[in-house]
Specification:
Blueprint: H1 2-6, H2 8-14, E1 20-27, E2 34-41, E3 54-65, E4 69-76, E5 87-95, E6 101-108, H3 116-135
Antiparallel strand pairs: 1-2, 2-3, 3-4, 4-5, 5-6
Family: Belongs to the AHA1 family.
InterPro entries: ASHA1/2-like_C, START-like_dom_sf
Domain Activator of Hsp90 ATPase homologue 1/2-like C-terminal: 2-135
């Protein structure tokens, strides 16, 4: 499971909500390592936070604890000060009694301009995609891994 959180090939397969796709510009998965990612809406008429129909964000890894936790600080690339504040995203993994993995993803500092319900919905969509990726056995662990 942990590998799917830090593997660039996995990130572009799961870390976006339905109706979007991901493109990595930079991804250095080590503490202090930088990343830059664009999420593009499938529909060209939907406005992105950065330009056109795209949301681009950049940041760095603050903490990487194998098989336990990933902490990232990120910010959207935008001219709108209401959307450009830094946020912290903490993903914590723990084993469940039934052999699965509990994934807890916490966002701190989400700009007020981003509706909490929209962020939650998009996060759930991405986590559903992560579950499917891990249960398929690539990457991040055996096909028997489960997210609860």
């Amino acid at each position: 499971m942990y590998r799917a959180l830090i593997d660039p090939a996995a990130i572009v397969r799961w870390r976006f909500p339905d109706g979007m796709s991901a493109r990595l510009h930079e991804f250095d998965a080590r503490e202090g390592g930088a990343f830059r990612i664009s999420l593009t809406y499938d529909r060209p008429d939907v406005a992105g936070k950065t330009a056109g129909n795209t949301d681009t964000y950049h940041g760095h890894f603050v903490r990487l604890v194998p098989d336990e936790q990933v902490v990232e600080v990120l910010a959207f690339e935008t001219a709108d000060p209401a959307l450009g504040a830094p946020m912290t995203m903490t993903t914590t993994l723990s084993d469940t009694d039934d052999g699965g993995t509990l994934v807890v993803l916490v966002h701190d500092g989400i700009p007020d301009a981003i509706p909490a319900a929209d962020n939650e919905t998009g996060t759930r969509m991405a986590l559903d995609r992560l579950r499917a990726l891990v249960e398929a056995g690539t990457p991040g662990g055996p096909a028997t891994s489960r997210i609860r």
